[in-house]
TrEMBL record:
PROSITE patterns cross-referenced by the UniProt entry: KINESIN_MOTOR_1, KINESIN_MOTOR_2
Localization terms from the record: Cytoplasm, Cytoskeleton, Flagellum axoneme
Pro residues composition bias: residue spans: 568-577
GO MF annotation: an example: ATP hydrolysis activity
Keyword Nucleotide-binding: yes
Alphabetized SMART domains for the sequence: KISc (SM00129)
Name of this chain's protein: Kinesin-like protein
Description of how the protein assembles with itself and partners: Interacts with HYDIN.
Residues forming coiled coils: 349-376
Length: 789
């Protein structure tokens, strides 16, 4: 494989009693043939003065039996086809020179059978010799006449281009003829029948369609596919052997021809000259484009000419003086062919089905190995199968709890689980990013500059800054619209929205709204630039936003009551600002404390930064003054012409002190500047922390508020109080597994009250679990709906 090889070119001389001994001479090695033309003949035959030619080929076959011809020309090509190499054997020559005799032979006499039947025999014999492989053989027989394709093995009696328009198709696997029948043959006899049928069709077609069979190219193809019987072997090989009986190569005199003959002559001359062009191009290693598509013959043989194939050309010539002109032309063709190099390569493919099966086997084996390994390592049995939704949800919950800090570590079970943990980290991260983005969008939104009504409403309410940006944050999205109470009826939302709109028109009309930042909202559901006011609940966020710059949250009592002590739920929910104060005293106390702490740090840093800036400016001013004084000194010195003593600079004491001072100032400046830079980075970081805390505080409040005043009691039972619940954050384990108390109750129940006794335990257990799962999903869906923007 990979070695370059020349096309093998042979000459077969048709036996004749009238052999031109004086003109045709064979070399002793039977590989060369010399032609000598007598003077008197030269005039009429060739125009140049040359009278002698010598052709060196791979073999000259004269008086050779069909047997010897096969041995010399075809045997190796066929043998290699079974190893995966494509092969092409072509017979070239003038009509009557013996192409068909060589290729097909006589059908009456077994001894005179040609290359075709012998190749089939060899293929089947070799298959018998290779029991290790399952080898299939298919055949097709194509005829190309006047650039039309005919299927010589078609079951239709008369086939023409109008009946089955065949086309030559190229794909990555190679070239094939669409519409050409390919016949599976399991034994020699079947193959022979097909060959004979093809020959018969060829003759019949030549009569019925009035075509001269010597004017057509015939390609008999044997397709081989060999799969190893060893199932672990995933590779298989394919190959094809093309046996080509070309149309007569004689130059037809166009002048004397007309009609059908002229057409045939044109087509044959063209296709054979295209064949030659393609072959010459193939022989030229610098040529990268080979003109295969110029005619049907070269196109159909594209992957069988040169390239990765074994290729043999057999030139049939007459041995008679009268045919010398054509003989010369044929021999020239043969010697040009001999120059072509090919690089035979095995056509190897992968059996996808086998690969899957082998991988499955391997997988099963490895699972067994793992099981053994686990039991040897005394590990509880680990399931290595892909995870289901519930297992993934459990990991998601673990990751969230881990991030919240309520779970110390995530136990490592297997690789698949580790991968899923990382995956869920990513999921949670992207959800949190979305949440932050959403919050930001709620806080700052642009108003469409063309929406004058909205702008004037906002301006009147004092909400617009000079750039036309909305100051602060719109509200109601989080409190009014975003969290629809769990028990809300469908109509409720629409109604409340309408109410907000009415409020907008009143508040917009009112001169100088009471709060500078309150009472605004953007209705995301209708248009991103439309304004709707929120309910008074918006004041909670406004308060927080005011905190952003002024840090005015009042201190909280250290022993703020815990949520367990929460008073019973009131019949009507308190307004949000009031509830928010409550929240800060109970569940939100910790986060509120952190929020305040961070903010005071932030303010302190801001103060320091501003002090540093002032100091830097003072230093800068002093530096400028010092520089000016220095310059003054310098100009004085220059005027006095004190540059003397061979280029040495003489500086007086005053100037020297100024230089020292400037140096010192520069140092101070650099240190302060560095401090300021550090402070700025710290401020940025603190600001980020403060924002995060604020966001968290609001979100926790949101959840707390809904949980306290809107979620039905029965659902609250399953959501154990104390955990922060948000969309997708209910730890599934909390719902999927019974709480400790529940577990006790259940085991008591199991002993005492199970109607069918302890045996029914698993049945009921499953039932309870299913119901729990169902409830969980219901809850989740409720939350998601409520939190969807
Ligand atoms: P082609 O196909 O090149 O037109 P054929 O194969 O039809 O030529 O040969 C023309 C005739 O010559 C046929 O009758 C064939 O049997 C005979 N013939 C050709 N070559 C040989 C050969 N080597 N030995 C015996 N007969 C031959
Ligand atoms: Mg023929």
């Amino acid at each position: 494989m990979g070695t370059r090889k020349k096309v093998h070119a042979f000459v077969r001389v048709k036996p004749t009693d009238d052999f031109a001994h004086e003109m045709i001479k064979y070399g002793d090695d039977n590989k060369s043939i010399d032609i000598h033309i007598k003077k008197d003949l030269q005039k009429g035959v060739v125009n140049n003065k040359q009278t002698d030619w010598s052709f060196k080929l791979d073999g000259v076959l004269h008086n050779a039996s069909q047997d010897l011809v096969y041995e010399t020309v075809a045997k190796d090509v066929v043998a290699q086809a079974l190893d995966g190499y494509n092969g092409t054997i072509m017979c070239y020559g003038q009509t009557g020179a013996g192409k068909t005799y060589t290729m097909t032979g006589t059908t009456e006499n077994y001894k005179h059978r040609g290359i075709l039947p012998r190749a089939l025999q060899q293929v089947f014999r070799m298959i018998e010799e290779r029991p290790t492989h399952a080898i299939t053989v298919r055949v097709s027989y194509l005829e190309i006449y006047n650039e039309s394709l005919f299927d010589l093995l078609s079951t239709l009696p008369c086939v023409g281009p109008s009946v089955t328009p065949m086309t030559i198709v190229e794909n990555p696997q190679g070239v094939f003829i669409k519409g050409l029948s390919v016949h599976l043959t399991s034994q020699e006899e079947d193959a022979f029948s097909l060959l004979f049928e093809g020959e018969t069709n060829r003759i019949i077609a030549s009569h019925t369609m009035n075509k001269n069979s010597s004017r057509s190219h015939c390609i008999f193809t044997i397709y081989v596919e060999a799969h190893s019987r060893t199932l672990s072997d995933e590779k298989y090989i394919t190959s094809k052997i093309n046996l080509v009986d070309l149309a007569g190569s004689e130059r037809l005199k166009k002048s004397g021809s007309e009609g059908r003959v002229l057409k045939e002559a044109t087509y044959i001359n063209k296709s054979l000259s295209f064949l030659e062009q393609a072959i010459i191009a193939l022989g030229d290693q610098k040529r990268d484009h080979i003109p295969f598509r110029q005619c049907k013959l070269t196109h159909a043989l594209k992957d069988s000419l040169g390239g990765n194939c074994n290729m043999v050309l057999l030139t049939n010539i007459y041995g008679e003086a009268s045919q010398l002109e054509e003989t010369l032309s044929s021999l020239r063709f043969a010697s040009r062919m001999k120059l072509v190099t090919t690089e035979p390569a095995i056509n190897e493919k992968y059996d996808a089905e086998r690969m899957v099966k082998n991988l499955e086997k391997e997988l099963a084996l490895l699972k067994q190995e793992l099981a053994i390994h686990d039991s040897l390592a005394n590990r509880t049995l680990v399931n290595y199968d892909p995870m289901d939704e519930i297992q993934i949800a459990e990991i998601n919950s673990q990751v969230r709890r881990y991030l919240e800090g309520t779970l110390d570590e995530i136990d490592i079970i297997n690789l698949r689980q580790i991968q899923e943990v990382f995956n869920q980290f990513r999921v949670v991260l992207s959800q949190q990013e979305q949440e932050v983005e959403l919050t930001l969008r709620r806080k700052y939104t642009l108003i469409d500059k063309n929406d004058f009504a909205a702008i004037s409403a906002v301006q009147k309410a004092g909400l617009m800054d000079v750039d036309g940006h909305l100051v602060g944050e719109p509200d109601g999205q989080g409190f009014g619209l975003g969290v629809t109470p769990f028990s809300a009826k469908p109509g409720k939302k629409a109604k409340s929205k309408k109410m907000f709109k009415e409020q907008l028109s009143t508040s917009a009309r009112k001169e100088g709204a009471s709060s500078p930042v309150g009472g605004k909202d953007l209705d995301f559901s209708t248009s991103k630039t439309q304004l709707t006011p929120s309910s008074k609940e918006g004041d909670v966020k406004d308060m927080l936003m005011r905190d952003r710059e002024t840090s005015s949250i009042e201190p909280l009592p250290l022993d703020s009551p815990k949520e367990e002590l929460r008073p019973p739920r009131p019949s009507t929910p308190p307004p949000k600002p009031v509830a928010f104060e409550d929240f800060k005293n109970e569940r939100g106390s910790e986060i509120n404390r952190i929020f305040k702490e961070n903010k005071s740090i932030l303010n302190e840093r801001r103060k320091r930064a501003s002090e540093t800036t002032q100091r830097i400016n003072a230093i800068k001013r002093e530096m400028d003054v010092t520089k000016e004084a220095l310059n003054f000194q310098k100009s004085l010195r220059e005027k006095q012409g004190e540059y003397e003593n061979k280029g040495l600079m003489i500086i007086d004491e005053e100037e020297f002190l100024l230089i020292l001072k400037l140096k010192d100032l520069k140092k101070q400046y650099r240190t302060e500047y560095q401090d300021l830079r550090d402070l700025k980075a710290e401020i940025q970081y603190c600001q980020h922390l403060v924002d995060q805390c604020r966001h968290r505080l609001l979100m926790e409040f949101d959840i707390w508020y809904n949980e306290s005043f809107f979620i039905p009691e029965d659902i609250q039972v399953s959501l154990k109080p104390g955990g922060s619940i948000r969309p997708g954050m209910v730890p599934i384990s909390r719902i999927m597994s019974l709480g400790e108390d529940d577990q006790d109750k259940f085991s008591q129940l199991q002993q005492t009250e199970l109607p069918e006794g302890p045996d029914s335990f698993s049945f009921y257990n499953a039932k309870v679990k299913t119901e729990q799962k169902h409830n969980y999903l219901k809850t989740m869906m409720g939350f998601q709906q409520a939190h969807r923007k």
